[in-house]
Specification:
The chain has about 110 residues and is mainly alpha-helical. It has 2 domains: about 45 residues, no CATH class; about 60 residues. The protein is about 75% helix and about 5% strand. It is built from 4 helices and 2 strands; from the N terminus they run αββααα. The chain has a two-stranded antiparallel ribbon with strand order 1-2. α3 runs antiparallel to α4. The radius of gyration is 22 Å and the shape is flat. The N and C termini lie far apart (about 90 Å).
């Protein structure tokens, strides 16, 4: 009787809210929740760089297991570096645009 209940619990079907597909593990349900959070950020009315920052902040809070402090710090440094790189690219584009506008006004 107990084995039958265990089998019933493990074979429960979970339906994806987006594609209507059925999956049979709780791990898949967790993936749907994560995908829903990402989708919510991407569909927000923020500009692309605010979305990247929101995704970065969400990613920092995501728990994927225990890491050693050194590994966690290394990952955080790499993530911050990537974010700052993207922000620097955006700033350079804005700087070039302003420089061109100022140069064309002075002529």
């Amino acid at each position: 009787m107990i084995k039958r209940k265990i089998k019933q619990q493990t074979t429960q079907k979970i339906q994806c809210p987006k594609c209507e597909a059925n999956y049979s593990t709780k791990n898949e349900e967790a993936k749907f929740k994560l995908a829903g959070k990402i989708d919510k950020i991407l569909k927000s009315r923020k500009d692309p760089y605010q979305k990247k920052i929101a995704l970065f902040n969400w990613l920092k809070t995501l728990k994927v297991g225990e890491l050693e402090p050194v590994e966690e710090e290394t990952i955080n440094v790499l993530l911050r570096g990537k974010l700052y790189n993207e922000l620097a690219k955006q700033s350079m584009k804005e700087y070039k645009k302003l420089t061109i506008e100022n140069f064309s006004k002075s002529e």
